[in-house]
Amino acid sequence: MHKDEMKGAAKDAKGSIKEAAGKATGDERLEAEGGADRVEGKVQKGVGSLKEAARDVLKH
């Protein structure tokens, strides 16, 4: 697993928590921030997956 995959997963989880907290409290800003963090985390996980795949291809 590439470090970007781990960081992305952490950002995605943090975003989910922020988004849920924003929904529960009616804080639209917090909810939007959470959604943005989730998207950023998913993108970062994808980049990490691509880096890992490229590393595997170059090894062989």
Automatic annotation (TrEMBL):
This is CsbD family protein. Residues 1-43 have a biased composition (Basic and acidic residues). InterPro entries: CsbD, YjbJ_sf. It holds the Pfam family CsbD. Belongs to the UPF0337 (CsbD) family. Residues 4-56 form the CsbD-like domain. Residues 1-60 are annotated as: Disordered.
